[in-house]
Every structure is written in structure tokens, then in C-alpha cells.
Design goal:
alpha/beta; TIM Barrel; 7-stranded parallel β-sheet
């Protein structure tokens, strides 16, 4: 059984693969470190939103380390370079102003930070989702690895995530609470951009789409379920339907950090096939509860704590948690094990290897 078959069987819940499939992402520091360890050069694919770059980069290295998946997505157009302002801040294609933080690029300026009307949204020009060269790397990886490995098309800044990056989180949440009229127009334009990107990736031949919108925080949702229904549920449904019209066999995974168990039932009804990243340690995400309530209709991808366990745990503690998640979420299939976020520089190479070793050791189905 090859990696593509393994992920397909697990994510479609059509039986048991030979073992639980594995996926993981590495920060730039970890990519460079493991590149030296394994002697595999890192190819970087610069995403149109900076933080997604590390989902798309280092595919060759991650495959050597044991991943069953290749992650592709839309990059910057061929020949394009970000503008840099007089203070050294990066201005991306959307007009977002960014500076390097301790871990991530941080947004410090929003192109729609002063939006007040639908007319402001109509006047704002999104980047061309089909710009020349944007899918060069995606096409190359699909051609190179598509027969053996499962290919995810990453569109991880989809609706809510793209809206907040354009407007700013505080303003967006306040304006949603006030019901500002421009919000539907903005959501529609974000949907059109993200759907165009996803549709291109599906046409190129990805096996699944990995969308992303962080609706949760550590203790609860960032917005109410009512607000999620008002602005996002039916837009997600429409996107899923449109993508499956291109390829009916497409698998739809959606990423949301935080505690979002309150909306999982409705999200499944809207068409989500796979829930990622199954952030542990937040209300409603106990693996036993998730598997019992949703396991017949939903597959799980993630679950391994990247906030405390991987950076600060021992290899034995990591192995114990890996086995626990495989025993619970992997029972009967329907699980791909992964850290709940990109592995950052504070996680040692020893602990990364402990995760991989335990996933391979305990993931075998008897």
C-alpha cells in the first residue's frame, strides 16, 4: 500500500489502511535543521500569505522523514517581489503591511482597516488568483509525486481568516456584532478569490483541498455559532459543492484552531469531510468525545499538542500521547496523525523524531 492509498482509505473511512497516515509541517528553523540532518535541500514555495509558506515548503524533506502527504498551493506570481516600505516592512499583494515577529510574520497594517461601506469593498482590488506562474510549483509537485503520495491543495486563508487579515481582527469582530452592511460584500469577494485558487488546484489534480479559518480560541469560539451560520456556513457549503462539481472524489479538509466543537455537527452537514487540526486541550476536543459523536461522519487530522507536549515533553511522554490518539481517533480508521500546528523552533530534533517514531510504531493496524 502506498502513501496515496493509505491516506485515501483513512480519510474516506472505507476500511483500514496498513497504518495510520502521518503528516507534519516544519518552521523555517526546523526545515533548515532537518535539511542538514537528512542531507535533503529545502525547496521553498513562497505563498501569497506568508505563514502558509511553511505548509508548502520542504515537501521533499518531509517525504524522506515519513510524511504521507505533499502540500501544494498558490504562490507569488512569477517575477513578483513584495514591496518594502521605508521602515523595512513588507507590503504583500493584498496591501497588508507585515513585520517579522519572534515566530511569525505579524500584520501591522490592514488595507481595509478603515472600510465603512459596500462601495469601499467594491473599489478594493484583490490580487489575480490566476496570475502567471502562481501554480508552477503546485503543478511540478503534482506531476512528480501525485501517483504515490496524497496531494493536498492548501487554501488555508479562506473566508474569516482572509477577512480579518484585510480588515483587522478587532474591527472585523466589532463590525460583525454591529451587522455592518459591507461584510457580505467582503465575504463574497474573499469567497470568490479563495474558490478561484482552490478550483485551479483541483483542476491541476490535487486529491484534497485543505481550507482554513480559525474560528476558535483556547476556551471558546471567537464568534458565536449564530454568527458563524450568518456569514460562513452557507459560503463554505457553496465552495465545497463547486469544488466537488470539478472532482466528485475530492476530499475537503477544513482547518480551525481552537475550541469549535459547537459547530462541528453543522459543518459536517455543510460538507466538511476532514477536521484539522483537532487542537487538544480545549473544551469539546477530548478525543473520546469527538470520535463518539462525529467519527461515523468525519475524519480527523492532527491532535498532537504542539504548544506544550512537543516542545517541553520527553520522548516517552510524546510516545504515550501518540499511542493514545491513535488508539482513540484511529480506531476503525478515519485518522491521520499530525501535530496540531507547524512544529516551531522550540521543539528539539529529538522530540520531532520521537513523534515520528511513535506514529510509525503504534500506527500499524493488526
Amino acid at each position: 500500500m502506498n502513501a496515496k492509498e493509505r491516506v485515501n482509505i483513512a480519510m474516506r473511512r472505507i476500511g483500514l489502511p496498513d497504518r495510520v497516515p502521518i503528516q507534519f509541517d516544519l518552521s523555517r528553523q526546523k526545515l533548515e535543521e532537518f535539511s542538514q540532518i537528512y542531507g535533503v535541500p529545502v525547496h521553498y514555495t513562497q505563498a501569497y500569505y506568508e505563514d502558509v509558506t511553511y505548509r508548502l515548503s520542504g515537501n521533499e524533506l518531509r517525504l524522506v522523514m515519513g510524511s504521507d502527504c505533499v502540500i501544494v498551493g498558490a504562490s507569488l506570481p512569477r517575477g513578483y517581489e513584495h514591496a518594502i516600505d521605508e521602515n523595512g516592512h513588507t507590503i504583500n499583494e493584498f496591501g497588508m503591511k507585515m513585520q517579522q515577529g519572534s515566530l511569525y510574520m505579524e500584520l501591522i497594517g490592514y488595507p481595509l482597516g478603515h472600510v465603512t461601506s459596500t462601495e469601499d469593498i467594491e473599489a478594493y482590488e484583490f490580487p489575480d488568483p490566476l496570475a502567471e506562474g502562481r501554480y508552477d510549483d503546485a503543478a511540478m509537485y503534482i506531476e512528480t509525486f501525485g501517483d504515490e503520495f496524497f496531494i493536498w491543495g492548501d487554501v488555508e486563508v479562506t473566508l474569516f481568516a482572509l477577512m480579518r487579515n484585510l480588515v483587522g481582527m478587532e474591527k472585523l469582530l466589532v463590525d460583525m456584532a454591529k451587522g455592518e452592511p459591507y461584510l457580505d460584500a467582503l465575504a463574497d469577494k474573499c469567497q470568490a478569490f479563495s474558490l478561484a485558487v482552490a478550483s485551479k488546484l483541483v483542476a491541476l489534480g490535487v486529491d484534497g483541498i485543505w481550507a482554513g479559518d480559525d474560528y476558535g480560541a483556547q476556551n471558546n469560539m471567537l464568534i458565536s455559532p449564530t454568527m458563524w451560520r450568518r456569514y460562513f456556513k452557507e459560503r463554505h457549503r457553496a465552495m465545497y459543492v463547486a469544488l466537488k462539481a470539478i472532482n466528485p472524489d475530492l476530499i475537503i479538509a477544513h482547518h480551525s484552531d481552537g475550541a469549535v466543537a459547537k459547530i462541528l455537527d453543522e459543518w459536517i452537514e455543510a460538507g466538511m469531510d476532514v477536521f484539522n487540526p483537532v487542537q487538544p486541550g480545549v473544551p469539546g476536543h477530548e478525543p473520546e468525545d469527538l470520535k463518539r459523536q462525529f467519527g461515523a461522519r468525519l475524519s480527523f487530522w492532527g491532535g498532537i499538542d504542539q504548544q506544550k507536549l512537543l516542545p517541553f515533553g520527553t520522548p516517552d511522554q510524546i510516545a504515550t500521547e501518540v499511542k493514545r490518539h491513535i488508539d482513540i481517533l484511529g480506531e476503525g480508521g478515519g485518522y491521520m496523525i499530525a501535530p496540531a500546528h507547524i512544529i516551531q523552533a522550540d521543539t528539539s530534533a529529538e522530540n520531532v523524531q520521537a513523534f515520528l517514531d511513535a506514529a510509525k510504531r503504534y500506527g500499524v493496524y493488526q
